[in-house]
Amino acid sequence: MTAPFLDPAHHPRVQTVALSRDRITLHLDQPADLVSPWAGEGTTWSTPVDADFPDVETTAPYPMLVSIGAATDGTVWLLNLEQTRTLHVTGTPSEVEAFARHVAVELATAPWAALVDVHTIAVGADLDDLNGTRLTHHRDPSDALLTATAEQVESTAHSGDWDPEDRTVLVLGATVDPATTRRLATGLAAHETRPAVAVLALGEANSDDTLEVRILDGRLHIDALAIDVQAALLPADDAAGIKRLLTVLDTHENTPMPVDEITVDGIGALVDRAGAIRPTLTEPRTPATLATGRTVLPEPELEYADAAALTVEDVHTLAPAVSDHVAEQVIAADPDLDRDLAWWHQGNDCPVPRVELLGSVTIHGHGRPGEVINRREHYAEIATFITITPGEPSARDIAEAFHISEERARVSVSNLRAYLGEHHLPKSVHSTAGPHGWTGYHLDGVLFDVELFTRLRARAQALGTLNDGEGIAYLVEALRLVRGEPFTDRRAGSWAWLNDRPDRPDMIAAAAAVDVALILHGHDLHPATTNLPRARWAAETALKAAPYDDSAWLALAQVADAEGNHAEAHAIRVAVDQRTDDERPPLDPPARTRRG
């Protein structure tokens, strides 16, 4: 849209944007002629959302666009603060502050606003330092920044100067001196080009050079623009959650793999969620403990670090030693593993139902297909929820998680039972009473590839390199189960309950696949046990499960080097070093990545 306007000061003066499911509509402050794919005339232009826009390397032309609310049909409205220049917001104090909070947080996090500095003055103390330096809080309502900004606006009003990297939004609390706000509004209104400053002030307007916004009972009204929408409000608790999330995203530390705190017997009580024997049950890697052979990487750690994309710390974590006593416990706790693996590989001839989650989601049963046959993914989701929910979930639990009625939940379970067989999904009268007084559901004898993977990994760790490397063979079998990113090809809106779980089984499954692949990678690049084809397969399988995992990419680069494919290895390492997931430059790689 702005490509023909080489001077940013002469971009079309966008006032608002209406973004519906299928169209983008611009409302301009002055008439303009826009090029294809835009269609319209005067001050109103629109285009389909999926139009073919030219890929122009430029900074965002309207960095102060911010969402203000949504119409009843779902259309999201955005306001260009740089065009409105000064905004006064009135209404219920809590809603006014929630709106100001939303504007500040969105501009401090949106990629198109990367060059905008947001300053909250006498409001929004809880937002200070949100997303690095993009948002700064000033407690003093007479902060010197106000005077400095007013002077800057006034001094550039007629000069035509415009610095594309100097963009500021001031969010002013109700206690800021009205005279200061009025001075800013007057200076911004008189500016002849783009002042690159916008003001959002809480409280009654005290100048004619301002746009008035009213928020009443959750609705936002801008009479001058004929806008009446459900206001975009951000509660303080949600803002705090966003701030914590951004902090976590900038914290690059490994966290311990969660364990099942409820299970007290069986294999689940001995391993973590990814299938590794719990650290409390393993032994440190020492010459004495390694001599028993109860580890999947029996050679000195430095030898693996020299040959593979592993650090010494990786080897200690992925391949600790296991005592004979613990190994015997792990093996005894899962006597049917080999039988279940053989059954799984029988495919449709497997005598028990199967649920596939290590890739695209599906379910296989031997009962009446009925409703299930054309809705496999939905019923795989129901089966998974029943299996991984602690206790025995009731119809009410399913209804709440899937946002359906209890009656529909019971019908879904009944259809699933008909497909799996009643002995695999017993009727609730055969289950124990659930927490709501209703009896719950559980599955018996249903194979899940995720569970089979963790069982195979545990068996591998228990066996180590005994019996001519039998443990490695179990790791290979585990990795053979991985077909793609876990829990993928899901219907839109499905599996939302996963987001409410503190332990994300989909993410854990991906991490487990990478762990197993790295063990095989280390084993197969060691000079004593080199197997380059399998090392490449392991790395590529890890990337199927976790396409953005740096350690998996670095493992593939190391394999390529070992194969003599040095150009491929170099390209992979450069891509890892230069990758960025947002508008900011690449992060400095951690020591582990540098080592890879």
UniProtKB/TrEMBL annotation:
Q: What is this protein called?
A: Bacterial transcriptional activator domain-containing protein
User: Which superkingdom?
Assistant: Bacteria
Bias (Basic and acidic residues): 577-586
Q: Where is this region: Disordered?
A: 577-596
The species this protein belongs to is: Xylanimonas allomyrinae
